[in-house]
Amino acid sequence: MTLLAIDWILLIEKLVLIAIIVFASLGIALYTTFAERKVAAILQDRPGPNRAGPFGLFQPFADGLKLIMKEEIIPNTANRSLFILGPGLAMTAALMTCAVIPWSSHVELFGRNIELQIADINIGILYVFGVVSLGVYGIMIGGWASNNKFSLMAALRAASQAISYELAMGLALIAVLMVSGSLSLKTIVDQQMEPGRLWNVAYQPLGFLIFFICAMAECNRTPFDLPEAENELNFGYHQEYSSMKLGFYLFSEYVNMIMSSAIMACLYFGGFDIPFLNETTLAPNLAAILGVLALLTKIVIFIFIFMWIRWTIPRFRYDQLMNLGWKKLIPLALLNMLVTGAVILYLQG
Amino acid sequence: MSTTEILFFFLTALAIFSAIMVLVSKNPVHSVLWLIAVFFAISGHYILLNAQFLAIVNLIVYAGAIMVLFLFVIMLMNLNAETEPQKHIWMKLAGAISGGCFLMMLVSLVRQASELNGKTALMAEGNIGLIKNLGKALFSDYVVPFEITSVLFLSAMVGAVVIGKK
Amino acid sequence: MAGQIEEKHMQALTNRSKEVSRKPMSFMEQLYLPAILKGMAITFSHIFKKQPTIRYPEQKRPFSPVFRGLHVLNRDEEGRERCTACGLCAVACPAEAITMEAAERLPGEENKYREEKYAARYEINMLRCIFCGLCEEACPKDAIYLSETFAPANFTRKGFIYGKNELLIPDPVTEPEAYQKARGLKEPTTASQN
Q1: Is residue A210 within 8 Å of A332, Cβ to Cβ?
Q2: How far apart are alpha carbons C39 and C44 in whole angstroms?
Q3: Among A57, A224, B163, C1, which residue's Cβ finds the most Cβ atoms within 10 Å?
Q4: Which domains does chain C have, with CATH numbers?
């Protein structure tokens, strides 16, 4: 089994894992769109979508079907190849993040020890960062290729917003890395699982707050949804898009939301750790399944908070957005980093 | 041929093809996008050399930040294939000659370098590109140049703020 | 200057107006977070509030007792049409939505029409009708009254011109159930008299 010097079983195992995780993420994202509408409705004292199937549970499929059946329009003056590339890039970048998220500990199946993580690379969190910084290309390329001034303006807004908030996000991250001393997400989670150690959010409350705000900005969620501000830019960067290409843009926002929730859960809330429970006492397979459920619960809670904020707070003005990013969050993150470093040095010496 | 070799040749071909496309593309935005493809291929090479940290930093800094700003500027300037100024034939010739000289110099330097003689690239081994070793090297052996560079960056930042305030 | 003096003497119409505070924000206010959390608490409290939504096709809202909906051409207890095509409703109609053609009752049709004259054609243009109910008031025979339904949507304008087929109430003798249903909750205003 060593044709071309590849461990084929490992390859198949990883491919199956990738397929499961990607389709699970897409499925969750599908239902996140439904949850968004339901949460909005409940917060606004109305029932929300309730016609398609019991409690409206088939609504996302109806929405998806509608998007697929719509006419595919590519404007005459658009740059055809880039116009098609844009939504694909946005979606790819959103899904690529899931490669380094540790979904749970390992399971034992067919006598093999399968890690529930696609790749435990020793720079996991930097990889996430790299992929996030690529996500903006999907928006920029799509907005520029549409050959529409509103789309272009939205694309530029998206790019400048992403760059501004990535800085504060990175600085908040560095403080976590100081606490954990590792870049691997798996190691960071394992450290938080150790008995007697609190979750990172206890050591980094300010860092978490900054990271959370920046994650919201990176996902282009309200109150940071300036790239798609309807009242200023009509429909933002996806104005010229129709059919499933538009669906990809809308969908990638939800996938991004799930991924950033997962990252926040891993960095600050113990990942697949179940509070007040020592997982090593359980059978490994049971512990793995419970771990996946714990991580999913945390993700769902984060997504609910994202939505809760969206339906509470109005959109920022552009100067407010930049002021918050550059004049408030970055100094705060620097301060947080400094204090963390000082405390760690004090404790060591 | 091992997997690493296949990947190496694939990435090399991709890098060279993308680099040529950067020059050949009439549309500046296409050029920038091909340049990003070059960075991806180079990052792939870094990973083959077991330098994951360098690979991902290359992506974050160059592809993720600098090229976004590049793209930003090009989009705002709205450069098209039609607005590209037609250069004089002598200018083109001079450019070709100077570029050729530079290439010749590079090739002769690499061929003469004694450390590289009879050596092949380390594939998936060696660990100088890992963050731990890199950090140790930067903060012990090269601490003075490293700090001087950061001061340089700081002054550049202050300069940008000063220009922006005017 | 005049404006300033006027402003001083201007009286507030209500006591609800509030002066805009131009005070610089305190540190707590500048943090924004307390205000944001307060807003989020408000939206969260709405999860537990009662929804005022009426799920329409399943649930219907009761009409007000004075609601004036689609017209019904009435029949008497024996199932004979009450309308005699006198044209008073058409005259009373401010929107000129009603047209009719009269015909004489032939021998043997006494069980179909109550009077010697009847409306062979009776049309109401629901696009013109303003549902004022003046036709109902004008009718001396209580032949027309406004029910508690409204005109359903249609694809053509033609579909909104209601003829006798649509307007006439089912026969109480042959189809009593349909008659009761069409009559609705509201009694024809003066049907019991006469």
Answers
A1: yes
A2: 9
A3: A224
A4: 71-183 (3.30.70.3270)
3-state class of C102 per DSSP?
strand
Angstrom distances, CA of residue A188 to CA of A315, A337, C94: 34, 18, 80
Residue B26 sits in the same domain as residue B88: yes
Residue whose C-alpha is closest to residue A79's, from B38, B69, B78: B78
Residue A45 maps to a domain: no
Same domain as B158, residue B137: yes
Domain span including residue B19: 3-129
| CB A326, CB A296: distance < 8 Å | no
A255 occurs within a structural domain: yes
Q: Is this model's pTM higher than 0.95 or not?
A: no
- The complex's ipTM works out to 0.78
How many angstroms separate the CA atoms of A285 and A225, rounded? 41
Cα distance between residue C106 and residue C116, in whole Å: 8
Parent domain of A339: 70-348
| A109 alpha carbon, distance to own chain's centre | 29
Between residues 172 and 191 of chain C, which touch chain A (CB distance below 8 Å)? none
Kindly tell me the burial class for residue A39, based on how many C-beta atoms sit within 10 Å of its own C-beta (0-12, 13-18, 19 or more): buried
**Euclidean distance between CA atoms B51 and B124, whole angstroms:** 9
Count of domains observed in chain B = 2
Question: Same structural domain for residues B62 and B76?
Answer: yes
pLDDT tens, chain A, 349 aa long: 445 556 777 778 888 888 888 888 888 888 888 888 888 888 888 888 888 888 888 888 888 888 888 888 888 887 888 888 888 888 888 888 888 888 877 777 777 777 777 777 777 888 888 888 888 888 888 888 888 888 888 888 888 888 888 888 888 888 888 888 888 888 888 888 877 778 888 888 888 999 999 988 888 887 888 777 777 777 778 888 888 888 888 888 888 888 889 889 888 888 787 777 776 777 777 888 888 888 889 999 999 999 899 888 888 888 888 888 888 888 889 999 999 989 988 988 7
In a domain, A39, yes or no: no
Report yes or no: B154 at the A interface, CB cutoff 8 Å. Answer: no
Distance between CA A154 and CA A225 in Å, rounded?
Answer: 10
Copy the structure tokens of residue B26: 């009439």
Q: Cβ of A218 under 8 Å from any chain B Cβ?
A: no
> Which letter does DSSP use for residue C23 in this model?
P
A122 touches chain B (CB under 8 A): yes
Look up residue A110 and give its DSSP letter.
T
Contact call for C49 and A44, based on CB within 8 A:
no
